[in-house]
Amino acid sequence: MKKTIAAALILLLMFVGSLYNIHYLDNLTGEITAHIQHSRQLCEAGSFDEAQSSLQKALDIWLNAHRYTHVFIRHSEIDAVTDAFYDVLQELGHDEADTAAGSYDMLLYHLNSIADMERIRLESIL
Amino acid sequence: MRLMGKRQLGQLEPSELVVSVLIADLGAHPLQDIGIPMLNGLVAIVTIFCLELVLSGIALRSAPLRALLWGKPCFLIEKGVINQKEMRRNRFSLDELTEELRRQSVTDLSTVEYAVLETDGTLNVLLAPAFQPVTAGQMNAAVTEKGYPIIVIDDGHILQDNLRKSGRDLNWLHKQLKKHGAKIPEEVFLLMVDDSDQVYYTAKEKRP
């Protein structure tokens, strides 16, 4: 009986832990996404330097979370997001608004897919 | 396996076997692929393991769930008659049945009263009364209770706990060593004693 109760408690603890993880990841990706969206608006307005600076902030938040990301997220997905960040930065450096738009989409897609995968939904479970 | 309360693979129920294989596979993936965080494997392992513990804990108290998870034992031979329907249902061939019976030193099918296929896949055989070995009780023979033999010296090492459990002390042990021509416990390979004071002694072979 003790073993069963202990196992049930561990399961409950892990469920609560996974809910907290989803909440934390949502906040992290949400904050980064807000910076990226702001950077995108600046890029579309032709303010490439400000766009670059805003995107750099988003990248810093992403890189500073490396302890969390490397423990919880597949490294291939971390690399995909980091690469997408540098792609956009490179295009902003060349003042290429048209190609940067596609790269922004790619970056947002990779970032959202990380958060999406953790959400409790039929698609992410099956 | 130890936490499941099992010692051997053969003792595992089908669901427990699946859990064991699954845990081994989940543990191997993060080790093989450095791109997968260890935590991914650990969380899955702990979840499956806890689910197994919870399910088996509930099954222990619920016979219908037990039957659903692990199945029920079935009679392949009942009252001396082979149950062909059960044999087919369990995909048990006649060759397998005779092989299992031979493993239990039964070569003549007509001597078997019951053969039960347990949920872990083992076959238990009960011989017809006429072919069962005679017991001391049936013979009204007086038997002396010898108790359970306890190992006191194992490969030259005195097992103090066992010595205490046997109700004897070092003095008794030294007397036994002297009686068998040994000076120190290191000269003894095995020394066992039972409740009737019967001692089994084997000296250690001298290495060339």
Strand share of the residues of chain B?
15-25%
Whole-Å distance between the termini of chain A? 32 Å
Overall helicity of chain A? over 70%
**Global mean pLDDT of chain A:** 89
Largest sheet, strands/sense/barrel of chain B: 4 strands, antiparallel
Portion in helices of chain B: 25-40%
The number of E-state strands of chain B comes to 8
- Element pattern of chain A in H and E: HHHHHH
Concise description?
Chain A is mainly α and 126 residues long.
What report would you give on this structure?
The complex is a heterodimer of chains A (126) and B (208). Chain A has 126 residues and is an all-alpha fold. In chain A, 89% of the residues lie in helices and 0% in strands. Chain A is built from 6 helices and no strands. Chain A has helices at residues 2-44, 48-64, 66-72, 75-93, 97-118, 122-125. In chain A, helix 1 runs antiparallel to helix 2 and helix 2 (48-64) packs antiparallel against helix 4. The two termini of chain A are 32 Å apart. In chain B, the strands form 2 sheets. Chain B has a 4-stranded antiparallel sheet with strand order 2-1-3-4. The two termini of chain B are 41 Å apart. Chain B is an alpha+beta fold and 208 residues long. In chain B, strand 5 (150-154) and strand 6 (157-158) form a beta hairpin. Chain B is built from 7 helices and 8 strands; from the N terminus they run αααββααββββααββ. At the A-B interface, helix 1 and helix 3 of A face helix 2 of B.
Layout: helices, strands, pairs:
The complex is a heterodimer of chains A (126) and B (208).
Chain A: H1 2-44, H2 48-64, H3 66-72, H4 75-93, H5 97-118, H6 122-125
Helix pairs in contact in A: 1-2, 1-5, 2-4, 4-5
Chain B: H1 14-32, H2 38-61, H3 63-70, E1 74-78, E2 81-82, H4 84-89, H5 94-103, E3 112-117, E4 123-127, E5 150-154, E6 157-158, H6 160-165, H7 170-179, E7 188-193, E8 199-203
Antiparallel strand pairs in B: 1-2, 1-3, 3-4, 5-6, 5-7, 7-8
Helix pairs in contact in B: 1-2, 2-3
